[in-house]
Amino acid sequence: MTKKRLSLALALTSILVAVSVVLLVIFLPINLGTNTPGPKPTTTEKPAPVVNELDRIFDPSKVSQTFIELPQKSIDKLAGYNNESYVAAKFRMVYDGTETQSVNVGIRIKGTTTHSTLNNLYYRPSFKIKFDWAKGYETQTLFGKRSLTFNAFVQDNSRLHETYAYKAYRAMDVPAPRTGYTTISFEGATKPNKPSRGLYLVLESEDDEFFADHFKDVTQHVYENNHDVTDFDVAKVGGDVETNTYFRVKAGWKATPNRDDLRAFTKAVNTDGKTFWDNLDVVADRERLIALFATDNFTGNWDTYSGPLRNNFTFRSNVAGKFTFVPWGTDQSFGENLFNDPGARVRFPGYRLPVKTHDDFFITVDKPWTAYPGSYVFAYSAGLRDMAKMENYQILRGKIFVKCLRYAPCATLYFQDLQKLSAWAKSEKLSDQMRATSQLVNQYLTPYQKAEGVRTANWTDTQIKRVDAAIKRNCALDKSNVITTCKAANG
């Protein structure tokens, strides 16, 4: 039998029964003195609402089940560190009481600093499942999605950060992935050492379908940084290659094998003041970029472009060369201080944990510089041994964000977006939502991880107060407490 496009329809499908309506011909007597009623209209039933299966998969109020079957060759490949190529697997999922068919897919291990092997002693690996993975499967999808990402929460003990960070971005009209929760189990005659892998985040991949869903215009390129502490410097743009030291083209290279859009963007943002502000409106979706910066800071997302590491950022251009930044890798947000977790000694041998621990010391929302949990490591590497001084070790942030804070019109828009986020978090009772999600996933967590969930919700309450205080420090408010103007930052 030749391979054809596999439809991942539901195992049980409802059958629509066509109902024929018999029209009755009514003969009316001719009697002008009598009011004879005409025929009554036929009552038609409303069509059943269309069920979006992806909405059911990306539903963080429920936990689905994912089952993966691996042949021995795939297990052997995933057990080594050279495991970034897709290997054969079978995949099925049970979500909200519904089961998909078991289908052939490709699977690989994903991650950079968290990259792992299938049976790593310290980390559970994160995975990427690809449905159009090989010849003969080019059109296979899961309800229109060509791939799914499964994150193992290696850098998020609470299991809350990505779900609520992406929710905040979407609330600010910044394109961001949808999320859900799932357990992963390996099944079949051949299994890896630990068949049951526990709770994962099922995450919408930022693939062609994602960009097609969120943008009406044509995508030219999708870029991502290849290195931390990366910024938009002319020397870092590189030649016309798909991948260089600092940036790689994730999509669009085949159609447009040059970096002209990135060169124009870099030139435009390496200006200052009004020129910078006007240029930014030409080469970027300026309003969404500032909203993204506000959400980065509101959620305490330090592992991103506007953070001290200038890391973990994806940006997409259209055919006119106008860029939109989209968030990715938001697990280290909402006060996550992985450097104080029990596994820190494994990651950083010889590093002495600071006296002050956990989440409340390092994030600024109104400064061109900030500390972050790993600032202790940077300070230690710089020769500092005084723990109190380590805590104040500050790092400059991404230059576009810094230029924004230093130009009053941009700073005003930024603080207005922060105010919107603060109001949204209050009206949504965001921290209470986090606590409810913790109750859902706590059965899969250790006591330490459960405690991180409590800290995450509490941190969110504290962050709302910090943001409101920063707005009062930097902005003029009208009688309704709405921002009118904000001052430019110094430093």
Can you walk me through this structure?
- The protein has 491 residues and is of the alpha+beta class.
- It has two domains: 59-152 and 176-211, no CATH class; 216-491, no CATH class.
- It is 31% helix and 18% strand.
- The chain has 15 helices and 16 strands.
- The chain has helices at 53-57, 72-78, 161-171, 208-214, 234-237, 260-269, 273-283, 286-298, 344-347, 375-381, 387-391, 399-405, 408-428, 430-441, 447-474, and strands at residues 63-69, 87-95, 98-99, 103-110, 126-130, 147-151, 179-187, 196-204, 219-225, 247-251, 313-318, 323-327, 369-370, 395-396, 475-477, 483-486.
- A seven-stranded mixed beta barrel has the order 1-2-4-5-6-8-7. A four-stranded antiparallel sheet has the order 10-9-11-12. A two-stranded antiparallel sheet has the order 13-14.
- Strand 15 and strand 16 (483-486) form a beta hairpin.
- Helix 14 packs antiparallel against helix 15 (447-474).
- The longest helix has 28 residues, at 447-474.
- It is globular.
- Residues 1-44 and 46-51 have low confidence and may be disordered.
